[in-house]
Amino acid sequence: MTKADLVEKIAAKANLTKAAAERALNAFLASVEDSLSKEAKLTLTGFGTFAVESRNARQGRNPRTGATLTIPACKMVKFRPGKMLKDALN
């Protein structure tokens, strides 16, 4: 599903125009990004939880040359699905 497909579904389910649905989706995505950039946990009850976790630096290997390299530490977003989402998938 693309963003355009998601905008169409939101517009249909919420009885909005596509433009209004796109503005709502963009506002939601900006809010999620802002929250996660401050390393806050974002919980959408029933849907799931987004959290920022840190990965330590580690050693890796270039598969083409076999040379060892250091993969730097980084932060990444983890998602844990909620009960309602798990039940909907099963």
From TrEMBL:
UniProt xrefs under SUPFAM superfamilies: IHF-like DNA-binding proteins
Superkingdom of the organism of origin: Bacteria
Signal peptide: none
Keywords attached to this entry: DNA condensation, DNA-binding
GO biological process: chromosome condensation
PANTHER family (alphabetical): DNA-BINDING PROTEIN HU, DNA-BINDING PROTEIN HU-BETA
Organism name: Desulfovibrio porci
Xref: Pfam families: Bac_DNA_binding
Protein name: HU family DNA-binding protein
GO molecular function: DNA binding; structural constituent of chromatin
CDD domains in alphabetical order: HU
Family affiliation: Belongs to the bacterial histone-like protein family.
Coiled-coil ranges from the UniProt annotation: none
